[in-house]
């Protein structure tokens, strides 16, 4: 067997289906989902409500042990879960729900890695510009042994070339997982808009959007939760590592497409060009925001090779996938639309990415302001 799968995936699924069909007698299971202290991991737990919630206001706050999620000390470990977005549950089905939560500390202030809080402030301030985002989430499938799924156990597959958008058992690994995740997202109400096999074998991408404002981060985080949950059922691992395999293999990013009402209107290209000029002046700041380790993860990926720009330089161009910012050819021809920021890493926090873009392009934030907010100056 080329890759290993987990023991749990070999359990009798028919037995599980028997229990899943049992009636709930009007009760509803609500699974609370939150980002843990790593800024990358997701946690969840489930409670019973007496009736189906019709809106997010119907779901009560809850709490959890933050000392077990890298978010608090054991002597003061209770953290608040504040529901912010509700989705249908594709695993236990209607009327059960998934709910994305913000994490607050004991004093009701946002946890250190709760970047949604500041992102929401920025999106509210820029509401009149109607910022739309679409994020392209790349990921790689691994066996439970952490070896790329479907790769020879003691070697490598053939070189890159036939795998991108490919078809066939010798080119595609894990399509069942991808199609299951796609359907799960649609059922949940996530605005997933596409998927494709990527350049490296066992690497895939799905796209979410367009989403306006804070919805982008909410929906991508829940789509990631569904991805990990689907992979759990199949017994494999989805990694968002931006360079999961060293050598002549593509890394994994989260290209972010950006558009405002002005960019979408007549003469929008000039607004796109102004935004790109602003981004170029704050390249170092954005690199710090575009992975969870202030650029260290992207150092392995943004090398100037494998369809990436150099982490040290800012560049922009029409239809150029080796640039920091790509203007799609159609946008250049029509003179309006959107641009693509190709720098965010696969494991980025979408709240951090979209917040940084809005603050730079729409709110004209300066490095001095970021310093005052407790961040290092470029």
Tell me what you see in this structure:
Strands 6, 7, 8, 9, 10, 11, 12 and 13 form an eight-stranded mixed β-sheet that branches. The protein has a five-stranded mixed β-sheet with strand order 2-1-5-4-3, with helices on one face. It is globular. It is 28% helix and 22% strand. It contains eleven helices and 13 strands. The longest helix is centred in the middle third of the chain and has 20 residues, at 215-234. It is of the alpha+beta class.
* Main beta-sheet annotation: 8 strands, mixed
Name the shape in a single word.
Answer: globular
Helix content: 25-40%
Individual helix count = 11
Structural class, by secondary structure, is alpha+beta
- N-to-C SSE string, H for helix and E for strand: HEEEEEHEHEEHEEHHHHEEHEHH
- Beta-strand residue fraction: 15-25%
Could you tell me the mean pLDDT?
Answer: 95
Which stretches are poorly predicted, pLDDT < 50 over at least 5 residues?
374-378
Name the quaternary structure.
Answer: single chain
Radius of gyration: 21 Å
The CA-CA distance between the termini, in Å, is 49 Å
Count of DSSP strands:
13
């Amino acid at each position: 067997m080329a890759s290993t799968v987990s023991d749990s995936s070999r359990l009798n699924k028919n037995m599980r289906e028997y229990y899943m069909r049992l009636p709930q007698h009007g009760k509803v299971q609500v699974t609370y989902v939150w980002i843990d202290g790593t800024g990358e991991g997701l946690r969840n737990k489930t409670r019973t409500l007496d009736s189906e919630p019709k809106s997010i206001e119907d779901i009560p706050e809850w709490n959890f042990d933050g000392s077990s999620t890298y978010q608090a000390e054991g002597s003061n470990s209770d953290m608040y879960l504040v529901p912010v977005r509700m989705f249908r549950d594709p695993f236990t089905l209607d009327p059960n729900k998934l709910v994305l939560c913000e994490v607050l500390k004991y004093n009701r202030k946002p946890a250190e890695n709760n970047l949604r809080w500041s992102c929401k402030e920025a999106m509210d301030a820029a509401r009149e510009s109607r910022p739309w985002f679409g994020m392209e989430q790349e990921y790689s499938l691994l066996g439970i042994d952490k070896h790329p799924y479907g790769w020879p156990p003691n070697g490598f597959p053939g070189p890159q070339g036939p795998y991108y958008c490919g078809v066939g058992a010798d080119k595609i690994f894990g399509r069942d997982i991808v199609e299951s995740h796609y359907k799960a997202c649609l059922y949940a109400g996530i605005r997933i808009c596409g998927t494709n096999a990527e350049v490296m074998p066992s690497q895939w991408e799905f796209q979410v959007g367009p989403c306006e404002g804070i919805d982008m981060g909410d929906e991508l985080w829940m789509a990631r939760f569904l991805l990990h949950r689907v992979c759990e059922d199949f017994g494999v691992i989805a990694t968002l590592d931006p360079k999961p395999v060293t050598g002549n293999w593509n890394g994994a990013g989260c290209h972010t497409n950006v558009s405002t009402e002005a960019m979408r209107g007549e003469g929008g290209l000039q607004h796109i060009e102004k935004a790109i000029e602003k981004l170029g002046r704050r390249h170092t700041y954005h690199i710090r925001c575009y992975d969870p380790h202030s650029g260290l993860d992207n150092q392995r990926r943004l090398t100037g090779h494998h369809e990436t720009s150099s982490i040290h330089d800012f560049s922009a161009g029409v239809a150029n996938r080796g640039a920091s910012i790509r203007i799609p050819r159609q946008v250049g021809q029509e003179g309006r639309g959107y641009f693509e920021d190709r720098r965010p890493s696969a494991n980025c926090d979408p709240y951090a990415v979209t917040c940084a873009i809005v603050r730079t392009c729409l709110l004209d934030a300066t490095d001095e302001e970021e310093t005052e907010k407790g961040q290092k100056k470029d």
